[in-house]
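Table S5 (text form). Sequence records supplied for joint modeling of the three-component complex.
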Amino acid sequence: MNVTRRDFTKGALALGTGLTLGFPAVLRRAYAADPIKIGVPAVLSGGAAQYGLQAKRACEMFAKDIQAKGGVLGRPVEFIFEDTTGDPATAVRKAQKLVEKDGVKFLTGIVLSSEALAVSAKCPEWKVLFMSSFTGVGAFTAAKFNRYSFRPNTSGPMGARTVSLYMAESPMKRFYGVGSDYAWGRDSIGSFDRQMTAVKKEVVGKDFPPIGTKDFGSYIAKVKQSKAEACFTVLLGQDASIFFKQAEQFGLNKEVKLVTEIVELANLKAAGDAMLGVIGGSRYPFTLDTPKNRDWVKRFYDMHNVWPDMFDGETYQATEWLAQAITAAGSDDVEKVIAALEDSTYEAPEGKRTMRKCDHQAVKASWMVEAVKDPKYPHLIPKILATYPGDRVTPKCLTEEFA
Amino acid sequence: MSPAIAVEQLLNTAALSALLFLVSVGLSLVFGILRVVNFAHGMFYMLGAYIGFSIVSRSGSFWLALALAPPLVGLIGAALESTTLRFIYRRPPIYQVLLTFGLSLILEEAVRIVWGATAQAVDPPAWLAGSVTLGATVYPTYRLFLITVGAVVGGGLWLFLKTTRAGLVIRAVAQNGEMAGCLGTDVRRVRTAVFGLACALAGLGGVVAAPMLTAYLGMGIGVIVEAFVVVVIGGLGSIGGSIVGSLIVGAAQTWGGFFISEVAMAIMYAVMAAVLIFRPWGLFGDEE
Amino acid sequence: MKRWAPAGGVAVLAVLPWLLARHQLSILTELLIFGAFAMSLDLLMGYAGMVSFGHAAYFGLGAYGSALCLLHFQAPLPVALAAGALLAAAVAWPVGYLCTRASGIYFGMLTLAFAQLLYTVAFKWRDLTGGSDGLTGVPKTALWPGGPATAGPHAYYFLVLTVSVVAFVACRGVVRSPFGRALEAIRENERKFATLGQDPRRLKVTVFVVAALVAGVAGALAAPFRGFASPELMFWLLSGQALMMVIVGGMGTLIGPVLGAFIFLLLQEIASSYTEHWMLLNGVIFVVMVIFFPGGLVGALRGWWAR
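The corresponding C-alpha cell record, covering 998 residues in total, follows.
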C-alpha cells in the first residue's frame, strides 16, 4: 500500500487530536486512596537543570519515606513534576496546568526567584499554597508577600547577613564585592556593604559581571589591584564555578580570602580543588553533625548515589514541614493548612525552626562553612565554621532589614 | 592602571578573542560556503567540551582529548548534515534555520541524557595548569596555551583555504556550486566535509574552553549569540573577518568589563550595531 | 471554501470556551496571543522579505507598556493595550530606520542587536521595570470605568479573540493594499523597485513599525493575562521561537503563522507532559517537518486540499 503524504497528514492530524484530548492520564499511577498532590514546576532542562534535579531528588526521596510511614492522613503523597525551562511565563503556565488540570493544592520546588515571584502572585487567585525551597529574593516575604506563600528556607538577605556577621567578627577590614548583575547579586552585595559600613569596615570596590560571563580576568585583576583582604562573591550557579576556577588560575586565592554567599556542592564539584579554602554561607551543609542529619544523609546517598547539596536538603525539609502541617490541619484544605503552618515549629536536622505568622518566613539557623578536602568524599566538602541562630540572621518582619 | 595590569588585560583580551575565534570561525565557514545559518553551532562546541571531559576522565590525558574530540564532533556534524541538511539546500535559506534549530534541540537533550545535568570539571595537564611570571604579572599558563591554539588554528585555516588544493575546491564551491559541479567536483561531498570541519572547529573550541570554563549544559545556548555577533562584525564567510571580529568583541568585553562591569555583555551588541550601521555587510563581508 | 475558512475558524474559536476545561482555555488564550505575535512577524518576513531576529523586543515593550499602565494608573484595559502598542511602535520607528540600512542576514543581526540592548535596559532599569524579577501583580481591569470586567477566563478569552481577529483583518487589509503589493515587489527585487521612483526604505520602515505595533498589542494582552511582565519577553530566544512559528506555519500566509504558533506551543505543552525528553521529541519533529513539508503547515494543508 502506498502511503501518500495526504494519508500521512490525515493520520498525523488524527493522532494529534487523540493525543491532545487523551492526555497522559495513562502515565499517572493508580492510587488506592485519593492522593495528596504536590506540584513541582522546576527547571528540568537548560542551564539551571542541576537545581531542578535537586528538587526532583528530594521530592522522590520524601515520597518514598512518607509512603513507608503510611502517607499523610492515611493518603499517599503524589509529586507531579513539570519543566519550566527557567522561564517565568512557562513557570506560570505549568503551575496553572498543575492547579487547574491536575488539581494540586500545593506547589514547591520552584528554582528561580523570577519564576517564584510570578507564580506566587497568582497563588491567591488559585487558592494554592506555595512552599518555597529555593526562593531567595527578599521581597518574597516583604514587599511581595501574600498569605498563600511560605518560605521555610534561607533567603538571600539571611545569607548575606550570615556572611556579614562572620566578616564583622573577623579581623579583616577591607573587602571587595563581586556579584552577578541581577537582583540577587545586587541586593546581597548592597546588604553586605551596608552592614560592613555599620561596623566601620570598608568595601573598597564592587563589580557586577553580567550573568553568563565567561572571562572573569578583568574582575580578578581589579580585586588584586584594590588590595582588599577578602572578596565576597554572590554569583549565579555556573558563573560561580567558573569564577573560582579562574581565580585559582590567576592565584587570587593566595592573595585574597575568597568568600561566597553560598557554598554549593555543584560548585565544589565543578571547580574542584580550585575552591579549597573558600569560605561562605550555606543554607544546608550536609556535614551537619547530628544523628538525625547523619541518618538522613546516609539514606539520601543510598537512594541517589550522590551527597546531598543545599537544595536537596532545603526541598526535603520544606516538603516534610508541609506534610507535617497537613497532618496537623487534619485535611488538605488550603486555608486550614495555612493556619496550621503559621507559628508552627518544625524539627529540622539542626534543631527547631519556627514559621513566623507575620511574613511566613521561617526563623532558621544559618551556617558559615569552609571548603575542605576529606579523603572519604570524591569532592571538597563544607566544614562548618560557625552556626548563627535564627534570631540573629532573620530580618525584621516583612522587611529585608535587620535589627 | 599600572603597567602590570595593562599587560594582563591585553593578554586577557587575546585569550578571550582566541576562544571566541575558535568558537565562531566554523560558523563563518558554514555561512560563507554553504550559505547556512547554523543555529546548532553552539551545541557542537558544548559537545566537544563534554566529549573532551569523558576522554580526560577515562584516560587521564588532555592531549588525547584534544586529538580525538574535535574529529569525533566533526564526524557527528558530517553525519547530521548528510542525513538532514543535504536535502534542503535548494530551499530558501530560512528553512535551514528551522532545521538547525531542531538539530540544536536534539543535541542539547542528547548531551543531557548522556552526561546528566551536573557541570563537569576538566583538568588540563599539570604543566599547563600553573602560571608564568611575566615581569610584574603572574599569568595563567593555560590562557597562553589558548592564545597559541587560536593563533595556530587561525593561521592554519587561512593557509589551508588560500594555498592548498582542497582549499581551492572549497572556495570554488562557495563561489559557484553549480559551476564547480560541472567541472567535476563532488559538491555534495565538499559541503559535508566543510560542515564537518566547522563542527570539528567548534568542538576544538569546546575542548580547549573546558579547563577554563568547565563543561556545563548552558554552554551551547550561552555562546551562540556571541558567535553570531563575532562573525557578523567581521563579515560572514571571511576568516580574516572572524579574527578581527573576535578581537573586537574580546576587547570590548575585557576592557568594557574592566571599566564598567555591567556593560560587558551588552557592549558587544552596541559595537555590532555601530559596525553594521556604517558598513551593513560587516567589516570584511561581501557587499551584496 | 477557502473564502469562508477564516470565518469558520473564528466561529469554532468562539464556541470552544464552552467545550474546553478551564486549563485548556488558558492554553488557548495564550495560543491566540502568540498567534497574533507570529502573524505580525509574518508581515515582515513573508511579505516584505525582512527576516527579523529581534521581534520579541516589541512584544516585550507592549507587555511592559500595558503592565505599567495597569499597575500605576489602573487604566481601563483598552487604554493599557493602546499604551503598549504605541510604546512598541514608537521604539520601532528609530530602530527600524537604523536597521533598514542593512539587508538580509545583516538586517536580522541589527534587529537582534537592538533587541538585546532593549533587553539589557529592561533587565537593569530596576526602578521602572522591576529588573530581573519583572513586574508582578498586573491586574486585569475593566473595559471602561464601571464597565464589564475582564478578569474571568471566558471574558479575557473573548477580549483576546476579538483583538486577534481585528488584528488579522487589519493585517490582511495591509497586505492586500497597494502598500502590501509594493512590499512584495521590494521583496522580489529591491533594486528594480527603486528605479520606479519610490523610496523602498520608507516602505520598509513603515512595515517594520506596523509589525511592531501588532506585536505590541499581543504583548500588551499577555501582561495582564499572566499577571506579570519580565525581561525574558524581549530576549532573543523568544524572537527565535516566533521565527520558528512563522516557518512552521508557512510564511506569507498570515493565517499560517497563527497555526504555526498553535502547533509550536502545543507541541511543547504536550511533549513535556509525556516525557522529560520533550526537547528531543520537538527537535525531531521540526527536522522532519522541514524536510517533508516545504511550505510549512499551510503549504501542506493546501497541497492536501488540492488533491
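Note: Residues 3-34 of chain B form the longest helix (32 residues).
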